[in-house]
Amino acid sequence: MSIRKTLNNKLHDIKNGIGDQIEELKAEIDRRFGNLGRRSGDEILRALPEPSGMTMPLMEALQERESERSFSNEPLPDQLVSNLLFAADGINRKGGKRTTPTALNWRETDIYLLKANGIWRWVPERRALLFCALHDIREESYILNSQFTLPPLELVYVTNYSRTRSLITDAVETIAPKIRSAAFSEAAIRELRIRSTNIDVGAKIQSVYLAAAAMGLSCVARTGFSAEKLAAKLHLKPDEEVVAAQSVGYPAKSILDHIK
Ligand SMILES: Cc1cc2nc3c(=O)[nH]c(=O)nc-3n(C[C@H](O)[C@H](O)[C@H](O)COP(=O)(O)O)c2cc1C
Fold first, then answer.
1. How far apart are CA 48 and CA 208, in angstroms?
2. Does domain 3-258 have CATH number 3.40.50.261?
3. Which of 160, 176, 221, 254 is the most exposed place for a label (fewest CB within 10 A)?
């Protein structure tokens, strides 16, 4: 990597307050998938271009938003992937704050990208994709084997519950059984945590639907898959859960697009 690129990355890190966390994340992904070593630095962390375009007025994007399940197998260029991820979970302010809200600013949703060229993880602080594995597991995000062309991109939203713990929530959970209030019971807090994290994913899904509409892409949110099977393929930890997937791609132009 060039000195200029290294300095730029460092500056980006300092601005977004993530310091050396990227090295920890790389090591973590390496432990889970075990084959990062086969790739060079630039390939492991694939920087995406700055988001741009998507100039459609919001009113028009809202008019255009719909679920479309028919895709061309043409891969999406990095610019469009960057725009989609900016919509889902891009940094738009100081302090690493995002385009979509999260309860208590937990930022607990990780986004994995399933593509023909492998599994990747979105790293918002670097505006980059971290390579995880070479396997094409797009098919695993469906209950039945799809008879149609697979979309070039499956976004997979994973809730990392370990990030929903903080001094405040831990304190409330410790005190709850002592004050015996139903509002603060362990079950109520668990339910609140699940409800909030699912809403956080929902906000991302709608944001991506609008971005897809603004770029003329087909898009559909999906929960119809085995979360357990997909979690195993992504080597998730026990406190991580797959919540939803979202397929995105160019619309199919002709019947030939459906030939796998
Ligand atoms: C949480 C959620 C889960 C969904 N799961 C699926 C799914 O598994 N498969 C699918 O084809 N569509 C799925 N959809 C898309 C809905 O079927 C679609 O939004 C609905 O039919 C309304 O159509 P519209 O999005 O075009 O307005 C899901 C949508 C949401 C919000």
1. 17
2. no
3. 254
